[in-house]
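Q: Joint fold for the lines below.
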Amino acid sequence: MERKNVNRIRIVVAKPGLDGHDRGAKVVARALRDTGVEVVYTGLHQAPRQIVDTALQEDADGIGLSVLSGAHMTLFAEVLRLLRERGAQDILVFGGGIIPDADIPELLDLGVAAVFTPGTPTRAITDWVHTRLSAA
Amino acid sequence: MARESESGLPIEPVYGPDASGTWDPAEKLGEPGAYPFTRGVYPSMYTGRPWTMRQYAGFGTAVESNARYQQLIANGTMGLSVAFDLPTQMGHDSDAPIAHGEVGKVGVAIDSIDDMRVLFAGIPLDRVSTSMTINAPAAVLLLLYQLVAEEQGVSADKLTGTIQNDVLKEYIARGTYIFPPKPSLRLTADIFKYCRAEIPKWNTISISGYHMAEAGASPAQEIAFTLADGVEYVRTAVAAGMDVDDFAPRLSFFFVARTTILEEVAKFRAARRIWARVMKEEFGARNPKSMMLRFHTQTAGVQLTAQQPEVNLVRVAVQGLAAVLGGTQSLHTNSFDEAIALPTDKSARLALRTQQVLAHETDVTATVDPFAGSYVIERMTDEVEAAALELMGRIEDLGGAVSAIEHGFQKGEIERNAYRIAQETDSGERIVVGVNRFQLDAEEPYEPLRVDPAIERQQAERLCKLRAWREQLRVDEALRQLKKAAEGEDNILYPMKDALRARATVGEVCDALREVWGTYVPSDGL
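A: Joint structure:
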């Protein structure tokens, strides 16, 4: 696949489902941008299929999902399933929101690379993204 | 050295008698219960009776939520506050594809009158007051409530409560919008007119800054953007031919209470003074009730932490105290597990108990506006007021609230403030107990409440039965009449009520309006 700029990490920050709380997504998006990441923000109310389409169109290295409505198990799983279906499982999926600790192991098993819950410093997220994707 | 308030205003270490310059209490404060209502909207405030304790609740099915309401009533709560799930709030039925995973999660799933009837079973609707957090489909849920009341034999003039019905702040902060601004405002005017004629004691709107604050707005931004939305609603209703005094007494507001008590008290007092002046001077209101800013308060959920969650009990008590010292008419105190999941029975009860301690074990209810005349509070009230008026002026310069929304003004300002707060928290400049200071090495495990995932299937089955059983021809005709009204100028609530009575679903009614009005697509960049 043709790559635009090997050194520039490209992330789609997405709000799947019907949840309208975008404070966290926007803060993380800005923080990533401030550390040199190219960020595409999807806006609210995205179906998993739209998010995967965006990630493929934008040739993204990763997708950051934010869900505060409790629908994370369904929506994260659906994004991962669609990525596999489209042969794009190399796109790193991470996320955050109001996600109980008890759900995190199952999300990791599904293939989510990392889950960041409330109170996580933005620095921890941006550092993680750079560490995971800089070598790619 | 001056410290900065949440609105970015200086707070000096000491204030004296000269804090507010030449200062005329008669002009700035007036008497409690009198213009400009700085000291509160009622002469006796809590000395007569305390605020209404109104705990927002609802999850899963109508059956489960009904049980929670019955329990809240048994525990002494005085008003219900219904949380709807996101599909209901977005006008989708539980079996719509986009609803997958969201059904019953953040509130109760209501698809039709059959669900609404179950939700209020055994609750006498002439004796409770019910607040419904519903915005874009507010008319739909209000009419369902009225229909259930009719079935209970309760006439509409006995119904009391509030619909949030504030779609402008959805574009700014909360995100559960459906239609574009213009038809949304027309619908708002239809609701005002309908309620004036049919449900006169209903609060037709709760103009909300809470969600802006949760999204990151400062106190000055919160009241400025909210009051500017209020101005837009008043202009809309006046343009639709209503007399200001015919609807303004039924307008209510909704704000946050943060842990920063002093500035919050100043904020509430400033908001009352600004609104009174706007209503009197700009809109020529004559009825004092039109000038009163009555408001509900919820404690700041965004200040609660997932770390050491029991500490949130303390934060909520402080926030609740700020709301009471600021003269709120009703209060929701958050549960301490808010940053983790939906409240459990126990955490919801503790949240209510917090209010009961404030109301019955402290002396803050003994006298009205206890901070009046405090050097710092009066100075901060003036300063928050000035900062808010400046922001309201910028919105006017952009052509009013809707035009400013279309420019992305309010959302941009709020997001900048949210990012600043995140950076201050990251750097440790802003201390959050248990998060960036005073952490535990290992957090105790916490078992949150979970919503049964089977609810989605159960709701889908109920819908399937409903669609098989109802008179489809009657539904189709009613929806056709609804669309006709939406295309023209007739009040759409009357045909909408007919459609809902015929068992059209929430999703079908909203889809009919989507066909006529389209949907709102924001220009949402970074």
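Q: Anything notable?
A: The interface with chain B takes residues 17-23, 26-27, 29-31, 33, 39, 41, 43-45, 47, 69-71, 73-75, 78, 98, 100-102, 117-119, 121-123 of chain A (CB under 8 Å). Strands of chain A lie at 10-14, 38-41, 62-67, 92-97, 114-116.
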